[in-house]
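Annex B. Sample input.
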Amino acid sequence: MNWKFFSGRRRISLETFLKGITSYDKAVEFFSEQGVFLPEGDQLKKFFEEKDKSPKKPKKKVELVSKPAVVQKPETSTPKSNASPKTRKPRGNKRNRALKRENKKLS
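Annex B, continued. Sample output.
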């Protein structure tokens, strides 16, 4: 499968696809394992050259902060009442309407 088609179809970048791969040789092997042809031209070589040149940033340590427990949830709306909501009367079919007319005439 062509890399351009594969990356477009999966919406994946070369950097994301090769996450954890550190050398060009391993990348070539990984592409063949996945059944994807190498990118056209020297795009892959340029990727590793830029990766080697860019300084590696140290990872920031994330400090966990405990949040206070919620004692009581605030009321956001009024409580529901027991009164039933107004609803539209269901429409009857032609036969029901005809029976209603007959009943009115007889009454």
